Amino acid sequence: MSRLPVISGREMLRVLTKIGFAIVGRKGSHVRLKRRRDKEVLIVIVPMHHELAKGTLRSILRQANLTAEDLTRLL
Questions:
Q1: pTM, 2 dp
Q2: 45 lies in a domain?
Q3: How many Å apart are CA 67 and CA 48, to the nearest integer?
Q4: Facing residues of 9 across strands?
Q5: Which of 13, 23, 45, 58 has the greatest number of beta carbons closer than 10 A?
Q6: Using one digit for the tens of pLDDT, what is the confidence trace for 13-67?
């Protein structure tokens, strides 16, 4: 398992939009993104912080069906 990079909410948003997620809402400092693929619908909430906590980043990756390697490659 590779190490998680330290990234901001804005960088995570850029990665997710690059792979097909679209912004569907915003409430305060949190952005909601959605991606439809066949019958699968993925919804991810990204806090727009300067630095995402490791646990938060891991949760976002799990919700988006990504691995740490995928994230590193997409950055």
A1: 0.86
A2: yes
A3: 20
A4: none
A5: 13
A6: 999 999 999 999 999 999 999 999 888 899 999 999 999 999 999 999 999 999 9
